[in-house]
Write a structure and sequence with these properties.
It is a single chain. The chain has ten helices and four strands. It has 419 residues and is α+β, with helices and mostly antiparallel strands. It has a single domain, classed as Outer membrane efflux proteins (OEP) (Up-down Bundle). It has a four-stranded antiparallel beta sheet with strand order 1-2-3-4, with no helix packed on it. Helix 3 crosses helix 5 and helix 5 runs antiparallel to helix 10.
Length: 419
């Protein structure tokens, strides 16, 4: 039941969000990715440790048989049965439970980090597939345009207006684009395999990709993002829970150095006495089994060196984790700086190539008009056509880079609110 509820938490956000083509693939990955399953089972296993450590030790049952019966006034003692229960020092069980709970919380953060990292990788790979799909489409369209240019160059050559070199130039351009197209198609296949591996399923139907990419806004200012990253980054949260577990282990080591207590009772089996010479002088409780209560015991923790070593070990491990937190914070801060830089650069490139595409499209129209009137060189037409294609591809790449930077920044912050 607990496992089902956590998986529902993992998947329920897809129903609450507006429809998005990638959402079904995220749900598939959440249910099938083996790495995510392993992290989830690691967390579930840590939960099972809690009831193990917070319970009392098992009672101790002992049976003893007297090889040489012990004679008493009421008869010979033949055997004994005893049961005892030990109790650790006050607060020891609670300290053990606290350690187990902190470890489970750390495992939960690791699972959530694995989930968010997986979803980020899927979104980035999905965007790469979008770009490759657009690049293939634009390249194929450009090849059709070049085919029309080749026909135009051939007609002009046959009519004596231009030389055959223009036909050759178009064919050279076509060969370059065909090679580029083949590379894009191969890249699409390998990227699709990567996408399927993230989902751990074989996609049987064509991948559903958007017709155009919508820019995902960055929700906060850089300084706010930095503060939020320190407070919410899941890897830092995992380390903080590990440090809390070590702090509780220090307290637990102190508890373990205290005595433990035990209480119990014994039951002794007694044979009846038989005195044929004076049967009337037998005691009235002859042969009656004896119930002795209570038995109270206490351990003597006189070997304190091992407990001091246990405290020192936990203290050093806590200090180690605190250093890891500091180091991880510095590393994440550097990554955030570079990602914000990449995001701003992608936004600038998006504006630049959008503007350059408009200019190149207008320039190509003018060059074609001038070429038809014999006022421009055909090589200029081909060069501008290639620039137009490059600007289209650069614009799509800039759009993908903007969104991927947002996804990576959001992962560092430990948040998944992309929309």
């Amino acid at each position: 039941m607990r496992k089902l509820s956590i998986m529902l938490v993992c998947l329920v956000h897809f129903q609450a969000l507006s429809q998005n083509p990638i959402d079904p693939y995220l749900a598939i990955a959440a249910a099938n990715n083996p790495g995510l399953k392993a992290s989830f089972n690691d967390f579930m296993a840590s939960l099972e440790l809690i009831p193990q450590v917070k319970g009392l030790p098992d009672p101790h049952l002992a049976f003893g048989y007297f090889i040489q019966p012990v004679e008493t006034r009421v008869g010979a003692q033949k055997a004994s049965l005893s049961i005892s229960q030990s109790f650790p020092w006050f607060g020891t069980l609670k300290s053990k439970e606290n350690v187990a709970c902190q470890i489970a919380d750390a495992k939960l953060m690791a699972f959530q980090d694995a989930k968010l990292k997986l979803f980020t990788d899927i979104r980035i790979t999905y965007n790469e597939l979008y770009y490759l799909d657009q690049a293939i489409r634009l390249t194929e369209e450009n090849l059709l345009v070049l085919a029309s240019f080749r026909e135009l160059a051939t007609v002009n050559f046959e009519s004596g207006k231009t030389g055959f070199v223009n036909v050759l130039r178009v064919e050279m351009e076509e060969e370059e684009l065909k090679t580029q197209l083949a590379f894009l198609q191969d890249s699409q296949k390998s990227t699709l395999v990567e996408f399927e591996n993230l989902l751990n399923v074989k996609i049987q139907t064509p991948l559903e990709l958007p017709d155009s990419l919508v820019l995902v806004p960055l929700s906060s200012h850089e300084q706010i993002l930095a503060d939020s990253m320190i407070a919410k980054n899941l890897q830092l949260q995992e380390l903080k829970y590990q440090a809390l577990a070590k702090e509780d282990q220090i307290k637990l080591a102190q508890m373990l150095s205290r005595p433990t207590f035990s209480v119990g009772l014994s039951y002794i089996f007694v044979d009846e006495r038989s005195d044929p010479e004076s049967p009337g002088n037998l005691p009235p409780d002859n042969g009656q089994n004896a119930l002795l209560f209570p038995q109270v015991g206490m351990s003597l923790p006189i070997f304190q060196k091992k407990y001091r070593a246990l405290r020192n070990q936990a203290s050093l491990e806590k200090e180690q984790i605190l250093y890891q937190i500091e180091d991880k914070t510095n590393l994440l801060s550097s990554q955030l700086e570079f990602l914000v830089r990449d995001h701003l650069d992608a936004l600038r490139r998006n504006q630049l190539y959008r503007h350059l595409y408009i200019l190149a499209d207008r320039s190509l129209s003018l060059l074609l008009t001038e070429f038809s009137a014999g006022k421009s060189d055909f090589e200029e037409v081909l060069r501008m056509e290639r620039k137009l294609l490059d600007y289209q591809l650069d614009l799509e790449e800039a759009l993908v880079d903007v969104n991927n930077a947002v996804y990576k920044i959001t992962y560092l912050v430990g948040d998944e609110n992309y929309r």
